[in-house]
Hints:
Layout: H1 20-44
Keywords: Membrane, Transmembrane, Transmembrane helix
Region (Disordered): 61-89
Transmembrane segments: 20-40
Amino acid sequence: MASSPVLPPNRHVPFKKGGWGAALLTVLGAVATFLTAFYIHTKTYRHPTDLMMRTYPHADASHGASAGTHGGTPTGHSTAPAATPAPAH
């Protein structure tokens, strides 16, 4: 059976400082990563109901399409009336 060593009653055990620098560097790196992600999030996030999110399909004024459409419809197909078939005799 293993037992812990018993120290004499008045023996001084020195404090070991090893590892605190690496721990501090790790914590600072995690905080910096969190702050960077939060900054990017605040600059780029758009709520799903935000009107700026309605950009697809892209409207281009130089092509003469109305806002939010390509060629007159959201799918890009023209809205020309279908040809009517000739009446059968």
